[in-house]
């Protein structure tokens, strides 16, 4: 399949590249402006999402994984993306463009660590997912209700304490009991967890950082297609 | 991968095929070791020093170790005694001739057959951990909970059948006005024989004016007490003379609970997931306290049962485990302690072997994350007496950074989840403060040459001379010398306990074995000042130096060359190390910052660095790193082990125990993780020294660093366009 990118005029390619660069540099206003310009020129919202935002966040994610960027830079880029999505989201809904998936994410009951989980939520948004961020101290009911309500295909559970990670097992049991287990892929993270723990509770993957969480989420979506 | 080149890496993946992961406690060293390696050899290759006087002939039995059972998530190790080869004939023969403590194995014979968590008991450690918690000299008004009264009582007779205790009580009331005294019934058994032995002249020890806790024959004037700080990694105990307030002896050791979990949460899990978990951890700390009490009493030349009072402090988890309270609730939000108020309990009820009727007083705690140790810090540093126009910031750097901010009008406390990076965990060549640890580092900005100092050896590494260790002549006894304390501290630290100096044996000069917390702080700030690191925490690819090597986009900077290290391999600081330190310092800084915002101030007037670790942090480097907010450098002061000092104050001055209860209630605890601005404040604090806040007191230093970067054409931050340009150039 030919990449639609190749059909773009050099000028349009440059426009998208500039957008990606401003996103990388965390410049919210220029990205929003470029998005409006692209819309005025008749670019479909789905294209702007894919070639401006998701492609830009891809580079951010890659450089984060490589250690070139760190948390502040990634959050700045994610915030720029978020501001742009405010403009784009209603149009995407209007035009009925299917998102690549919906993900529910939260830090489990008893645990109030927020930042690492927010980083993953933003990176997933950056990868084109619709993300329902339930915050911290989330119990099984809240996870289950959100999964049902948003027909999510991805569940991310986070914990940073050895004392709170066992609750993930409780949520997994509830998923099975409610017949939801087959409908969602479950990702868990991160320190002090490991693959063995993920396997024990029957989760689909353990992610050791936000970059891995994006790779894993994408892989599951690709599999389900 | 051999044991030799796998650095301690707690976040690493599973052991490579054909190897097993072995972790030694309490040092925390770990490596993947080929199956079949003799345990002692593995220990040596990893720089873990186990005694072995007979050099593996199964005669000395010094190399005894224990295998811990179970899964240790942090190290990804599933350990069990079956992962060592079963005792062979040689080892069986040794145990037939010697007392066999349960679970002990000889490291010189058994071989590695699976993943292992090995605990090296104190007596088997060849180099004792240097535990650097000393008592600072403070003026404390001596008004102890124990008061002595000398009484002479009359013999009972058939006409006057009043009991002997009642006679003592009557006499104490008549002569000293002590009403409603009770007697610990445990003393009754020996009461009459003491009276008989001393012609009915006795000295009674009265606790808090309420209870007789000791009856001694004749006139006596000695009374002793213990002040103890139970830290997550270190226990420090001071034996004090309750009359003079003098510290007679100090003893300290690693907290033996380290073997069951390095951080607080893994200890909470240990208690929660095992039937005997709490008992195991409780007994471990009590055994250690008993051992230290005997050691201190021996050094002071007093009987251990002459100790009638004690004050203990510790963080909330240590507090609960000490008191045999399941710490489960402290492991999850809302982190509710079972009790915040102070506790008085009989020492014998805890298993503490001091005077049979002696007491333990545990200072109150403030909240689930701010414990009795922090109350001790308040007692010692008295921020509640700071003038209303000054703002004091007190930071106790440990696994959790505890923060106090305020003055006489209002005092806030908080706990920052700094994680264990400052203690050397999560750092490639990180280690605790022990002999061989690099604790000071200087990087020459012009040449990028590095010199450093290690604990246990005098002088900077560039003055060591070449050619590695110098072998001393046999019999030319030298002692393991201790880390030189910074000059300004020497005057305030009490003498080094003699137990640290007792070991006389020839030793080669100490070589670098790793980097401890103060070393890693200096490394990162020195590299920033030299222009090797950028403010966003990257190694600058533009820097040309043989010390800086790249693997993809990640770099390593060599601190110690192979001929300067005990392993013969370089000691480095990596990109990931810098990131780990950035997160830890951001947690600390943002905690302080949020308390400043609560208080409505934009600067602090002084910064007190409490805790043993605080004493070894250089103020300039801490500020360049951005651990602490901007402040006049002369006003950043190390105050030593304030928590332990607070315990000593409460031991020597009983009314301060009431004051501590009042202060614990008066201090406002802020759960900073729930503050709305926490995430922003944390992220802003990740760059070096800070993403937003100005550091006017570092203006010259930071400008010089920026100049070094400019000279090499190093941009402060990566920009997308720069990146694209570089990529195009490559393509």
Brief account:
The complex is a heterodimer of chains A (225) and B (731). Helix content of chain A is 58%, strand content 10%.
Notes on the structure:
The complex is a heterodimer of chains A (225) and B (731). Chain A is α/β, with parallel strands linked by helices and 225 residues long. Chain A has helices at 10-24, 28-40, 45-65, 71-94, 115-126, 140-150, 166-177, 195-201, 210-224, and strands spanning 102-107, 130-133, 154-158, 185-189, 205-206. Chain A is built from 9 helices and 5 strands. A 5-stranded parallel beta sheet of chain A has the order 2-1-3-4-5, with helices on both faces. Chain A starts with 9 loop residues before the first helix and ends with a helix. Chain B is of the alpha/beta class and 731 residues long. A 6-stranded mixed beta sheet of chain B has the order 14-13-12-15-17-16, sandwiched between helices. A 6-stranded mixed beta sheet of chain B has the order 28-27-18-19-20-29, sandwiched between helices. In chain B, α5 (264-273) packs across α6 and α12 crosses α17. The longest helix of chain B has 25 residues, at 575-599.
Mean pLDDT of chain B: 86
Helix content of chain A: 55-70%
> CATH homologous superfamily of the largest domain in chain A - what is it?
Cobalamin-binding domain
* Approximate helicity band of chain B: 25-40%
The string of secondary-structure elements of chain A, in order, is HHHHEHEHEHEHEH
Strand order across the largest sheet of chain A: 2-1-3-4-5
- Structural class estimated from helices and strands of chain B: alpha/beta
* CATH hierarchy: architecture of the largest domain in chain A: 3-Layer(aba) Sandwich
Mean pLDDT of chain A: 91
Major beta-sheet overview of chain B: 6 strands, mixed
Oligomer: heterodimer
CATH topology of the largest domain in chain A: Rossmann fold
Give the number of DSSP strands of chain A: 5
Unreliable runs of chain B = 1-12, 128-135, 467-507
- Quote the distance from N terminus to C terminus of chain B: 34 Å
CATH class of the largest domain in chain A: Alpha Beta
């Amino acid at each position: 399949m030919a990449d639609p990118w190749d059909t773009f005029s050099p000028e349009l390619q440059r426009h998208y590249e500039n957008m990606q660069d401003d996103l990388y540099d965390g410049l919210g206003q220029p990205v929003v402006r470029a998005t409006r310009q692209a819309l005025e020129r008749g670019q479909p919202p789905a294209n702007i999402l894919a070639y401006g935002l998701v492609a830009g966040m891809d580079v951010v994610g890659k450089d984060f994984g490589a250690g070139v960027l760190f948390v502040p830079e990634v959050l700045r880029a994610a915030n720029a993306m978020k501001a742009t999505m405010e403009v784009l989201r209603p149009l995407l809904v209007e035009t009925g463009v299917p998102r690549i998936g919906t993900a529910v994410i939260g830090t489990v009951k008893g645990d109030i660590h927020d930042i690492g989980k927010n980083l993953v939520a933003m990176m997933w948004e950056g990868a084109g997912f619709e993300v329902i961020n339930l915050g911290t101290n989330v119990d099984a009911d809240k996870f289950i209700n959100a999964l049902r309500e948003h027909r999510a295909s991805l569940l991310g559970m986070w914990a940073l304490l050895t004392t709170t990670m066992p609750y993930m097992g409780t949520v997994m049991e509830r998923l099975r009991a409610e017949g939801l287990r087959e409908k969602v892929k479950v990702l868990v993270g991160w320190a002090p967890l490991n693959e063995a723990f993920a396997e024990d509770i029957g989760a689909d993957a353990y992610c050791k950082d936000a970059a891995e969480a994006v790779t894993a989420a994408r892989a599951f979506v690709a599999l389900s297609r | 991968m051999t044991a030799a080149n796998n650095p301690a890496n707690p976040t690493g993946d599973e052991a490579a095929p054909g190897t097993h992961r072995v972790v030694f406690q309490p040092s925390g060293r770990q490596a993947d070791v080929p199956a079949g390696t003799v345990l002692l050899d593995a220990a040596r290759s990893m720089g873990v020093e186990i005694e072995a006087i007979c050099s593996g002939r199964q005669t000395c039995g010094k190399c005894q170790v224990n295998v811990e059972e179970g899964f240790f998530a942090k190290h990804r190790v599933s350990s069990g005694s079956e992962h060592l080869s079963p005792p062979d004939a040689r080892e069986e023969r040794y145990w037939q001739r010697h007392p066999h403590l349960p679970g002990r194995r000889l490291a010189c014979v058994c071989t590695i057959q699976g993943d292992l968590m090995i605990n090296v008991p104190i007596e088997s450690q060849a180099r004792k951990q240097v535990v650097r918690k000393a008592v600072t000299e403070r003026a404390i008004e001596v008004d102890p909970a124990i008061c002595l009264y000398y009484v002479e009582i009359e013999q009972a007779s058939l006409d006057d059948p009043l009991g002997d205790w009642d006679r003592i009580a009557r006499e104490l009331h008549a002569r000293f006005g002590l009403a409603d005294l009770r007697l610990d019934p445990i003393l009754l058994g020996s009461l009459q024989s003491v009276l008989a032995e001393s012609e009915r002249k006795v000295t009674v020890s009265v606790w808090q004016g309420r209870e007789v806790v000791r009856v001694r024959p004749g006139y006596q004037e000695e009374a002793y007490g213990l002040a103890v700080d139970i830290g997550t990694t270190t226990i420090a105990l001071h034996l004090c003379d309750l009359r003079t307030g003098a510290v007679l002896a100090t003893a300290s050791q690693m907290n033996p609970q380290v073997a069951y979990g390095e951080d607080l949460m893994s200890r909470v899990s240990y208690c929660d997931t095992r039937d005997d978990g709490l008992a195991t951890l409780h007994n471990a700390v009590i055994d250690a306290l008993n051992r230290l009490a005997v050691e201190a009493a021996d050094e002071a030349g007093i009987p251990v049962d002459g100790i009638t009072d004690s004050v203990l402090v510790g963080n909330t988890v240590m507090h609960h485990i000490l008191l045999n309270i399941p710490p489960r609730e402290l492991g999850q939000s809302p982190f509710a302690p079972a009790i915040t108020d102070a506790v008085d309990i009989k020492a014998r009820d805890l298993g503490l072997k001091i005077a049979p009727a002696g007491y333990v007083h545990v200072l109150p705690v403030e909240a689930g994350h701010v414990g009795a140790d922090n109350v001790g810090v308040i007692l010692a540093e008295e921020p509640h007496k700071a003038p209303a126009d000054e703002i004091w910031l007190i930071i106790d750097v440990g696994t959790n950074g505890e923060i106090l901010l305020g003055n006489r009008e209002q005092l806030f406390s908080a706990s920052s989840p700094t994680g264990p990076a400052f203690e050397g965990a999560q750092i490639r060549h990180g280690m605790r403060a022990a002999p061989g640890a690099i604790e000071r580092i200087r990087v020459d900005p012009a040449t990028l040459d590095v010199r450093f100092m290690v604990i246990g050896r005098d002088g900077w590494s560039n003055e060591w001379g070449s050619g590695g260790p110098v072998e001393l002549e046999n019999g030319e006894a030298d002692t393991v010398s201790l880390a030189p304390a910074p000059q300004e501290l020497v005057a305030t630290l009490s003498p080094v306990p003699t137990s640290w100096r007792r070991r006389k044996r020839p030793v080669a000069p100490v070589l670098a074995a790793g980097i401890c917390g103060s070393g890693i702080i200096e490394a990162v700030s020195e590299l920033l000042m030299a222009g090797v690191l950028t403010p966003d925490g990257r190694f600058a690819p533009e820097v040309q130096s043989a010390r800086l090597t790249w693997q993809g986009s990640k770099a390593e900077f060599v601190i110690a060359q192979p001929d300067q290290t005990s392993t013969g391999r370089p000691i480095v600081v990596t990109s990931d190390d810098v990131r780990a330190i950035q997160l830890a310092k951001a947690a600390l800084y943002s905690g302080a910052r949020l308390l400043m915002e609560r208080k409505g101030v934009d600067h602090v007037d002084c910064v007190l660095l409490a805790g043993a670790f605080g004493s070894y942090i250089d103020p300039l480097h801490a500020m360049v790193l951005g651990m602490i907010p901007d402040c006049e450098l002369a006003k950043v002061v190390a105050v030593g082990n304030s928590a332990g000092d607070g315990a000593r104050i409460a031991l020597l001055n009983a009314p301060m125990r009431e004051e501590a209860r009042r202060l614990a209630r008066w201090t406002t605890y802020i759960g900073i993780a729930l503050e709305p601005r926490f995430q922003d404040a944390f992220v802003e604090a990740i760059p070096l020294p800070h993403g937003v806040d100005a550091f006017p007191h570092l203006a010259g230093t930071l400008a010089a660093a920026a100049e070094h970067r400019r000279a090499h054409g190093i941009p402060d931050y990566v920009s997308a366009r720069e990146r694209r340009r570089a990529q195009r150039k490559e393509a």
